[in-house]
Amino acid sequence: MAAVVFALLAATTNALSSVLQRLAARTAPPSDGCWLSQVRYLLRQPVWYGGMAGLILGFLLQASALDRAPLALVQPLLVTELPLTLLFARPLLHMPMEPRSWVAAVLLAAGLALLLVAASPSGGQHQPSSAAWVLATAVTGGILAVLVTLARHASGPLRSALLGACAGIGFGLTAAFMKAATEHLGGGLPALLDTWQVYAMVFSGIASVALLQAAFHAGPIIAAQPPVTLLDPIASTGYGIALFSDQVRGGWWIALELTGLVLIAAGTAEMSRSPLLADASWQR
Questions:
Q1: Is the Cβ–Cβ distance between 84 and 12 less than 8 Å?
Q2: 164: which of 122, 146, 215, 225 fits an S-S bond (Cβ 3.0–4.6 Å)?
Q3: CA-to-CA distance for 93 and 162, rounded, in angstroms?
Q4: Chain-centroid distance, C-alpha 208
Q5: How many CA atoms lie within 13 A of 123 on its CB side?
Q6: How many whole angstroms separate alpha carbon 232 and alpha carbon 238?
Q7: E strands within 15-115?
Q8: At 70, is the secondary structure helix, strand, or coil?
Q9: Which helix (H) or strand (E) holds 281?
Q10: What does the alpha-carbon distance between residue 142 and residue 87 come to, in Å, rounded to a whole number?
Q11: pLDDT per residue as tens digits for the range 206-228
């Protein structure tokens, strides 16, 4: 139960962080082509520091959740960040929330609940073997290389969707590294910094954010956001099963799990049409 609370709090703080960052950026003067001027402006905005504090707190809360529960439980719960972002944006950015956004939020919430009830994830072993890490990283690298190559030869919404898929898988891998790193929290900061998973997590996280920004730049958010939102929990569940021996229900439960994923995808796609998300610069 504590892990669920931490995961939902992480989603909440991430959503608030996104809105605060957007609130700081929306009053910035027109860009003169120099990104440093934009950075200097943001550094003078107190609300921007609130956004950064929320981002750090969200990271710590996610790590606390992963320290207590399997990837297959924690990562799907973070999908709630998207509707929470809209809820915070409504009062803070003074933007109306259209009826379609409420419908999308209901679809997403119903899909998430169905997925988690059907899968009923439970944890397995804590630390994967070195061979398992090598295999998982190599397979992931191969999949990402194929998707990036396809994206280079595509354009518009298709390119955006392919890069979004890369980002979603990358965030799943980042969560797997984070899950492994949390096992060293008991030894304090020196023990944590002595583990390679921490540095792999940082590298993977930065690369995933870069892929996400490239996806938003390549096409409309309605093309980029659904694969990110959908593939993050799917990839995380896969890593949880393959690396940490997480258990999810099979058999006829798979049909319900797939239905939950379809509802999440439909809700995310519909939510991506909201004018509140029209500016992708404040996503993640």
A1: yes
A2: 215
A3: 30
A4: 9
A5: 15
A6: 10
A7: none
A8: coil
A9: none
A10: 38
A11: 999 888 888 877 877 778 778 88
